Structure formats: structure tokens, C-alpha cells
From TrEMBL:
It comes from the Bacteria. Activates KDO (a required 8-carbon sugar) for incorporation into bacterial lipopolysaccharide in Gram-negative bacteria. It comes from Chryseobacterium paridis. This is 3-deoxy-manno-octulosonate cytidylyltransferase. Belongs to the KdsB family. It catalyses: 3-deoxy-alpha-D-manno-oct-2-ulosonate + CTP = CMP-3-deoxy-beta-D-manno-octulosonate + diphosphate. The gene is kdsB. Its main location: cytoplasm.
Length: 241
């Protein structure tokens, strides 16, 4: 299998505009993310997919690979356009605002497909257990619930499941927005119309569930810093130092 990573990158993020061009250590956030993905050694090629000339030039001028795309509502739609003419079997979508992603969780996603002899899985992603009440209730943390085989039942910014039976302990999981697609599934995804649940929650992987597709979730212990706000950026700067 030829495996590539693509990092979707918007300049005008709604909650924190230009966050990918903020300085993190000695580089910008997007350049840091790109180099960290390259350094894993897991991929045949790594690309940034963007509609911003500023981000495109930032990557290319630093020796990286970037693809210009049109404007899209979701990162997966952007990646689908970027990979149409790229020869590959598996596409890993790494979020541009997750600069500290490590090798092991990416390898776990790739292994899902290497072990899928019948090629039944179209999409895999990551989840991590949440324990702090503040983190569980934070709408910036997308929660996910799965069935007994690890396939997603639903994603939400709300607290799911609702803990009504207080005598029973329930686990909460945060969805980490790193996806691994079979290329043909990704291209199919991009042709599907957004449905009400995805539009309401602003969570792109809900589109798969609304069309009856399966998403395999792999639990990881990886703890990174997703940069959604200026406060997150300060946390990331402390971490990198």
C-alpha cells in the first residue's frame, strides 16, 4: 500500500484566525505540524492542502509539499480535492492545529488497514479517555461513543452518554480529529451532501454515520495540544519549550 499524509489548512479559522501562522518555537504552527509528520517516517509523501497562498508559500518556501485547493467546509472535502490525482491507497488526515501528534497513534491507524484483509473498513480514527469534568463538558472537545467492536455510534459536542444512572460508572472519550481513509472512500465522502446532524454539530465525520457508513475508533493514550484558541497556543508554547 502507498500511504500518504495530508494536512488540511485554512487561514481564516473561525475561532482563532491565522492560528496556523502563529509562531510556535522556531517555526509557525503549520510548519511545525508538517515537519513532525514527516519525521515519523511512516509516509511515502506528506502534503499540506490549503486555499491560502500564505500557508502554501510557508510550506513550499521551507522545502515542503503543498497543494492549492478551492474553498471547502471541511478538511476531508479539501483533502479529497487534493488527492484526486495523487497515486495512493491510504490517506491520513492530520489536523494542522495538532502539532504534537506522535508516531504511535498514526501507526495504529495504518495498522487498521494492514490487518483488514477483507478491506471492510473505509475509515479509522482515534479516541482518548476523558476524566476531568471540565474537559468532558467543553464543547470544543468532540465526544464519541462506540459499539462493542469499536465502531462509532455517534459524535457530539454535548456530553455523551448522559450519565443518568449515577450508581454506574461510565467512560467518556474525546475524538481526536485524525482520520485514515481508503482513497476511494474519501472521494466518495466528498460527493455526499451535508445532512442536518453534521450541519448542526459542525462535526464532519457525522456525515459518514448519516449515510450508514462505519468508522473504526482506536483508543490511544496520546495527549497533545489542539490549538483552537489563543490560550491553547500559550499551552503549546510552554510544552515546546
Amino acid at each position: 500500500m502507498k500511504i500518504i499524509a495530508v494536512i488540511p489548512a485554512r487561514y481564516e479559522a473561525s475561532r482563532f484566525p491565522a492560528k496556523l501562522m502563529q509562531i510556535l518555537g522556531e517555526k509557525t504552527v503549520i510548519a511545525t505540524t508538517y515537519q513532525n509528520v514527516v519525521d515519523t517516517g511512516l509516509f511515502d509523501e506528506v502534503f499540506v492542502a490549503t486555499d491560502s497562498e500564505i500557508i502554501f508559500n510557508e510550506i513550499v518556501n521551507n522545502g515542503g509539499k503543498a497543494v492549492m485547493t478551492g474553498q471547502h467546509e471541511t478538511g476531508s472535502d479539501r483533502i479529497a480535492e487534493a488527492v484526486q490525482n495523487i497515486d495512493c491507497d491510504i490517506v491520513i488526515n492530520v489536523q494542522g492545529d495538532e502539532p504534537f501528534l506522535k508516531t504511535e497513534p498514526l501507526k495504529q491507524l495504518i495498522d487498521v488497514f494492514k490487518e483488514d484483509d477483507n478491506q471492510e473498513i473505509s475509515l479509522a480514527s482515534l479516541k482518548i479517555k476523558l476524566t476531568e469534568k471540565e474537559e468532558i463538558e467543553n464543547p470544543n472537545n468532540v465526544k464519541v461513543i462506540t459499539d462493542n467492536n469499536g465502531f462509532a455510534l455517534y459524535f457530539s459536542r454535548s456530553v455523551i452518554p448522559f450519565h443518568r444512572e449515577i450508581s454506574y460508572t461510565v467512560d467518556y472519550f474525546k475524538h481526536i480529529g485524525v482520520y485514515a481513509f481508503r482513497k476511494h472512500a474519501l472521494l466518495q465522502f466528498s460527493k455526499l451532501e451535508m445532512k442536518p446532524l453534521e450541519i448542526s454539530e459542525k462535526i464532519e465525520c457525522i456525515r459518514y454515520l448519516e449515510y450508514g457508513m462505519k468508522i473504526k475508533l482506536i483508543e490511544t493514550n496520546f495527549i497533545g495540544v489542539g490549538i483552537d484558541t489563543p490560550e491553547d497556543l500559550e499551552k503549546a508554547r510552554k510544552l515546546i519549550n
